[in-house]
Write a structure and sequence with these properties.
mainly alpha; 16 helices; globular
């Protein structure tokens, strides 16, 4: 794999050659070289190469679409007061994101939209949706066939709300194929500039909301509800592109969150690498290092950021699970949104259906957990995690102990 060769292929796919910026080249080039050095399996190698090419092609297609006179007005539609949910992986970000997205006054981007944000059929919404969703559905079916236990760790679907990284992966190449590479101790990821990536993501959201307005599929003026744990690393860069962003940070005891994410990274490594064995203790060390940087960056932002410019709040995982409706109400009160009776009913109905669904799963599995992990599996101990992140627990979790 070579970046220049993949850029040429992407140009042919998009039938357009203006990337408009070159900030993406350093992250892509470093990640590609690291994958070559590690040595993926033939299937993993092909999947990673496909990911890089498709993200580059999407970058070009978005640029091309926004130059079209029919769609260029999208750049005149501001992204107003979006909510960004962030926090360490496995701290309830996905659950909270989906709850917040259920507000009739809000909208979350769906997986197929983020992966392929440019409409194929502008004036046939039904056909366009099916075509764009079909590729992702097929890819997810293959992934679940190769690593069947992955869906027990993280639910992904073409029509489900999904993480921002599916879109800004066109600038910062982060996805299932690269998670375990970027989150290593030797990774350059922690030092990359993210402002350009967020500005390009802003343009994608402008395009998506303009498409919806043009097709009459969404009420005008809905606020975006967005989510990605990786935002915690670069909140300073995020608010430069989204100056009126609202931030919600989820918190959970690192003794649970870190081993859980270690298990997620192991699943990613299972999918792509050719190694006959996986160094679980190395995953543990990498995640300790990564977590330290993420938490310190998030804490620094929360300590210095103005509530007036960028309202921000924290959510405890225990509160979210025990009382999801009350947690959402508290978030709305802190961020200044109206919590309507209509929205409350939607939440109550969803939570009851979700409870019934989970009970059915328990019956089928005999109560056996589908996602099993422990700190010791990855060469870590609870004492070591407590010692490393005691400051974080004292700051954000102490009152919950």
């Amino acid at each position: 794999m070579k970046l220049e060769e993949m850029k040429k292929i992407a140009t042919k796919i998009a039938k357009y050659d203006d990337f408009e910026d070159h900030q993406f080249e350093r992250p892509f080039d470093w990640t590609i070289k690291k994958i070559e050095e590690i040595g993926y399996s033939p299937l993993g190698y092909a999947a990673a190469k496909d990911f890089f090419i498709r993200r580059l092609a999407v970058k070009l297609r978005v640029n091309k679409e926004l130059k079209d006179p029919i769609m260029s007005s999208a750049l005149d539609t501001p992204v107003r007061k979006p909510i960004f949910v962030t926090g360490l992986p496995r701290t309830g970000t996905t659950f909270l994101h989906r709850l917040l997205a259920m507000d009739p006054e809000a909208r979350a981007p769906l997986s197929y939209e983020l992966l392929d944000p440019v409409q194929r059929y502008r004036d046939d919404v039904e056909k366009d949706t099916k075509v764009r969703a079909a590729y992702l559905t097929k890819a997810l079916d293959v992934m679940n066939m190769i690593v069947p236990h992955f869906k027990a760790i993280h639910e992904v679907g073409a029509y489900l709300p999904e993480e921002c990284l599916m879109s800004y992966g066109s600038d910062i190449p982060m996805f299932f194929a690269t998670f375990h590479v970027l989150m290593s101790e030797e990774s350059e990821y922690y030092n990359w500039e993210h402002v350009t990536a967020y500005k390009n993501y802003y343009r994608v959201l402008q395009l998506m909301q303009y498409q919806a307005m043009r097709n009459g599929t969404e009420k005008e003026g809905k606020r975006w509800v967005l989510k990605c744990p990786a935002h915690l690393l670069a909140l300073d860069d995020l608010v430069k592109a989204f100056p009126d962003a609202r931030i919600v940070w989820t918190h959970r005891d690192p003794k649970t969150a870190i081993p859980s994410f270690c298990s997620f990274l192991r699943a990613c490594q299972d999918m792509y690498e050719a190694a006959s064995y996986i160094q679980l203790d190395k995953i543990g060390r990498n995640l300790m290092y990564c977590t330290d940087i993420f938490l310190k960056r998030g804490h620094d932002f929360f300590m210095k950021s103005s509530q007036k410019a960028n309202p921000h709040t924290s959510v405890h995982y225990g509160d979210l699970i025990k009382d999801p409706v009350g947690t959402v109400k508290a978030i709305y009160a802190q961020l200044g949104y109206e919590f309507t009776n209509e929205y409350e009913k939607i939440l109550v109905d969803y939570i009851e259906k979700d409870r019934i669904h989970r009970e059915e799963i328990k019956k089928k599995t005999g109560g056996k957990k589908m996602h099993n992990y422990s700190a010791e599996m990855f060469g870590l101990t609870g004492e070591e995690i407590d010692q490393k992140f005691g400051w974080y627990c004292e700051t954000y979790l102490m009152e919950k102990k």
